């Protein structure tokens, strides 16, 4: 119910943290789901099944190894992996740091390497480092710093 309210009833554009959540929403008629965790190799088969079944099942990548895994496991029927590059802007949990020398190369490899197999949808940054904040000003400072880091990366 909350997800339907949050998306205006469209049943599109939802972000999930687990594949159990993705399967739950897919069973409920959602056909545009982002799995907001870099795809581990042991979850690839589940991600592939969802990507084949749904109009749009999107995943995160944060390493060249993750990209290579997707390229070595193409989706059948002309479908492509829909990928967001996960940036770590201070959370320290997952993602590649925007200032990491490999980050721009990874973004270019996703976007230009094999467009018939993988499509770069965008950049994804999660401000999980706000969880320990004690006031609104601290949260806003992290949001601003994350925004600056993402925009600097896009500009580069």
User: How many discrete structural domains?
Assistant: 1
Percentage of residues in DSSP E strands: 15-25%
Please compute the radius of gyration using only Cα atoms.
16 Å
The protein's oligomeric status is single chain
- Given the C-alpha coordinates, what overall shape results? globular
Structural class: alpha/beta
**Tally of helical segments:** 6
CATH class: Alpha Beta
Q: What order do the helices and strands follow? A: HEHEHEHEHEH
What is the strand tally? Answer: 5
Description of the molecule:
There is one protein chain. By secondary structure, the chain is α/β, with parallel strands linked by helices. It has one domain (1-155): Alanine racemase (TIM Barrel), CATH 3.20.20. It is 41% helix and 20% strand. The protein is built from 6 helices and 5 strands. The protein has helices spanning 2-6, 19-27, 44-53, 64-71, 101-112, 136-155; strands at residues 14-16, 32-38, 56-61, 81-87, 118-125. The protein has a 5-stranded parallel sheet with strand order 1-2-3-4-5, covered by helices on one side. The longest helix is centred in the last third of the chain and has 20 residues, at 136-155. The mean pLDDT is 92.
């Amino acid at each position: 119910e909350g997800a339907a309210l949050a998306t205006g009833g469209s049943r599109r554009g939802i972000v999930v943290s687990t594949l159990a959540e993705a399967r739950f929403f897919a069973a409920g008629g959602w056909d545009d789901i982002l799995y907001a965790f870099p795809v581990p190799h042991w979850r690839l088969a589940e991600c592939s099944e969802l990507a084949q079944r749904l109009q749009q099942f999107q995943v995160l990548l944060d390493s060249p190894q993750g990209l290579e895994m997707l390229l070595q496991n193409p989706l059948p029927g002309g479908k492509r992996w829909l990928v967001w590059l996960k940036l770590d802007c201070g959370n320290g949990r997952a993602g590649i740091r925007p200032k990491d020398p490999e980050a721009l190369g990874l973004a270019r490899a996703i976007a230009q390497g094999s467009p018939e197999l993988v499509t770069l949808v965008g950049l994804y940054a999660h401000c999980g480092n706000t969880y320990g904040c004690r006031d609104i000003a601290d949260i806003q400072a992290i949001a601003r710093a994350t925004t600056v880091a993402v925009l600097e990366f896009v500009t580069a």
